[in-house]
Amino acid sequence: MAKAALITGASSGIGRCLAQIHARKGGDLVLVARSGDKLNALKEELEAKHKVSAHVLVEDLADAGAPQRIFDATEKAGLQIDYLINNAGFGGQGLFHERAWADDRSMIEVNVIALTALTRLYLPVMVARGSGRVLNVSSTAGELPGPLQAVYFATKAFVTSFSNALWEEVRGTGVTVTALLPGATETGFAQTSGMESSPLFQGAVSPMSVAKAGYTAMMRGKLNVIAGVPFARRIVYAMASLLPKKMLLKQVRKVQETS
Length: 259
Hints:
By secondary structure, the protein is an alpha/beta fold. Helices cover 49% and strands 15% of the residues. It has nine helices and seven strands; from the N terminus they run βαβαβαβαβαβααβαα. The chain has helices spanning 13-24, 36-50, 66-76, 101-129, 150-169, 189-192, 207-220, 231-239, 245-256; strands spanning 4-8, 28-33, 54-58, 83-86, 132-137, 175-182, 224-227. It has a seven-stranded parallel β-sheet, sandwiched between helices. β4 (83-86), α4 (101-129) and β5 (132-137) form a beta-alpha-beta unit. The relative contact order is 0.13.
């Protein structure tokens, strides 16, 4: 029986790559995103190429009711979700006190609330049957405070902490929870967050390489996987806790600046 993966933010970037990887392995899919046209095109591509079954759910995860509707739809269709991949998320650059609160509130809703709600809906089912995998897409941004992206960095800190705690809670149940921490990646993130000219996105890696690392780590039940981060920057992250906090904040702000 084909394993089914539910992937949020599946219409582009890392989410689309994760869907392609899972389909290549013969797995069925539930594809979730706001863009119905992109999802249906991906569904047709994967079904034709890999002979798998793909279901499309058009939802905006900034809507508080979306997670429950997604869960209800898969339950009604009789779909067993073997792998839950919470990939959807977005950022936004600027001073917190100047940014539109509606934008940051939507960011929290998508990056934190929807991810948490979907995990709460599907995790009990997985634990009850003794099998399942959860992959939560966090970010290396969550390892540091982020001046000029204060809310985004904070949401990703939540995702990593939440995922790690669940990894321990479900240990021994047959279910695992993995956090994927990408570095700068060639997706639409830089454009939507206003970060195209930031030094942070110079040398960004392909979303497929990040997706492969995340998918492999999920299947192995790993706690965390860092992907798409140059060795020199990994050293910086490792040493961050040793630096004076004010110096660290200044350096992080510098790489966020776009002018």
